[in-house]
């Protein structure tokens, strides 16, 4: 099924994983997150390791290991998580090569830009703490 808003599986794992870890009083491991989210353990491990490298998570190896937040949940926005996986979320603009848009203005009436701006604002203004309240 086609979607208007297409969020990658990696971003979905990152945000859901971070929310789950923030909501947990104990460390969470890849197996626990795989049970909650139904994503592959390998993909979860890869995404969480990226989040460790970006300073969002702390990890501890071993049988009692797992992941904890590296900073408080109210100091981590969803936009930071999104951009750590996908890169900068810039406002959408029409393709400058589009002859229709150049001659007549955006055929979508600027909705793409509006949706992108609203989505970015939501991510910027929402922290992990907001989600787990």
Please give a structural write-up.
The protein is mainly alpha-helical and 133 residues long. The chain has one domain (9-132): Orthogonal Bundle (Arc Repressor Mutant, subunit A), CATH 1.10.10. It contains 7 helices and 2 strands, in the order H-H-H-E-E-H-H-H-H. Strands 1-2 form a two-stranded antiparallel sheet. Helix 4 (78-86) crosses helix 6 (111-125). The longest helix has 15 residues, at 9-23. It starts with 8 loop residues before the first helix and ends with a helix.
Give me the side-by-side strand order of the main sheet: 1-2
Q: Taking all residues together, what is the mean pLDDT?
A: 89
Query: What is the CATH architecture descriptor?
Result: Orthogonal Bundle
Dominant shape = elongated
Biggest sheet character: 2 strands, antiparallel
Report the order of strands and helices. HHHEEHHHH
What tags apply to this protein structure?
about 55% helix; about 130 residues; two-stranded antiparallel ribbon; mainly alpha; 7 helices
Topology:
Elements: H1 9-23, H2 30-37, H3 41-53, E1 57-60, E2 66-69, H4 78-86, H5 99-104, H6 111-125, H7 128-132
Helix pairs in contact: 1-3, 1-4, 2-3, 4-6
Explain briefly what this protein structure is:
The chain is mainly alpha-helical.
